[in-house]
Amino acid sequence: MTNENIFSKKLVKKEITTISFSITFQNLIVFLLNMSSIFILGLQGGIHLSAATLANQVYFLVYLAITGLAEGSNVMISRFWGENNHDAIHHTLAYTLRNTLVFGCIISLITFIFPKEIMRILTTDKTLITLSCEYLKIVGISYLFFCVSTIMYNILRAVEIVLPSLIVSIIACITNISLTLFFMFPLNAGIQGVAIAVLISRIIECTLISIYTIYKQNQINFKKIKLLYRNPAFAKRFYKTIAPLVSNELLWALGDSVIIIVFGRLGSDFINAQSVYSLLSQLTSVNLGFASAACIICGKTIGQKNYDKLNYVIKTFKRISIFVGIINALIMIFGIFIIPIIYDYPDLSNLYIKQLSLCATIIEFFKSIQGMNMMGILRGGGDMKFILWNDMTFLWLYAIPVCLLSAFVFHLPVYMIFGLTKADQIIKFFTSEIRYKSNKWIQDV
């Protein structure tokens, strides 16, 4: 065994614990920032919750796109961090920040100018369209600030700085909840007030994390980053790594939007149940922080060429994913009992909520394990093309056709439509395991 391959299991466990729980806890805070206002808004009636949730499908698209860019950048930065190649890190950040600013500006303009056209795609319910547009037109402005914040968070994560991001997220969350309560009750500003609260909290969050990243941290010298840096050879390398991830996230978001559109044609009761599942699913997704940590640590370890440590890291994260899957399943079961108490839904909506939550207990368990494989281990290894192929194959050739056929041809019960559509998460567990065991997933970036 070479010196490079010697490692302390105690130190590796500490590294995994520190990064994983910091990122996961931050994801929880970000989830609370995103959903606390919608949760409070829902106390005024289920129609408000459904309207805000539908409008947040646009946020979901933005989140996936910017996450693809951020995670692709993370893969490169963590690998360069392990190689101690600071010039390459600066070049990566120049391209990442440029793309982020362009994307954020475009998406904010589109949502501000065309909110009604966007919502008409997602639903035909005129009441939902009206309420959703009031929310989307304001909250859409925040997407630019959200994109910049997300990139800053991921820059810090890639070089193993997590505490400042956590502190900023907590400040933003407290600000959002306080402003939401203020606009909702003393001012009675309704859904527009909630959107304004989100916008203000996003601006504060972006400002604070940008100031820290640019001026306070020491690992990356931002003064050396040339935002307009251009190098054709490096650009090819950058986009070769980034493109499959961004394409994956955007095509996945587009496909998921098709499924949401189909669900939106199945009646208001199913929309209510789907909105509740979406809320609970986002709560379980905070555990993807473990997958993000796995991506960072695996990328760094591969950069160090310490493969004994890599095997130990992977085994540890795989155990964690099973435990997280059990927790996610329990969250779905919890939703069966608690949601009808909080929200005043019709009886049929409550029945659909129970049915969908029961289906989701199995789905969320496998989703955790395959998410660790795909978004953690394989992504950390730079295996972007397989991830793109795997996700798109089962979304576009399985989930969407099954959703359309079960809903409009066979007219199956709603829980079967939902369960069959989401079963791609179970299938991808097996394909990701096969890919990992093939030992072909470590790629150059």
Description of the structure:
With 445 residues, this protein is an all-alpha fold. 84% of the residues lie in helices and 0% in strands. It has 16 helices and no strands. Helix 14 (384-409) runs antiparallel to helix 15. The longest helix has 38 residues, at 46-83. The mean pLDDT is 85.
Task: Write the SSE topology.
Blueprint: H1 9-42, H2 46-83, H3 86-113, H4 115-122, H5 126-139, H6 142-158, H7 163-184, H8 190-216, H9 232-264, H10 268-285, H11 288-304, H12 307-342, H13 347-380, H14 384-409, H15 414-422, H16 424-437
Shape: globular
Q: How much of the residues is beta strand, in percent? A: under 5%
* Overall average residue pLDDT: 85
Task: Outline the low-pLDDT stretches.
Answer: none
Helix content: over 70%
Query: How many structural domains?
Result: 1
The string of secondary-structure elements, in order, is: HHHHHHHHHHHHHHHH
Largest sheet: none
Cα gyration radius (Å): 21 Å
The tally of beta strands, per DSSP, is 0
Number of helices: 16
Distance from N terminus to C terminus (CA atoms, Å) equals: 26 Å
Structural class: mainly alpha
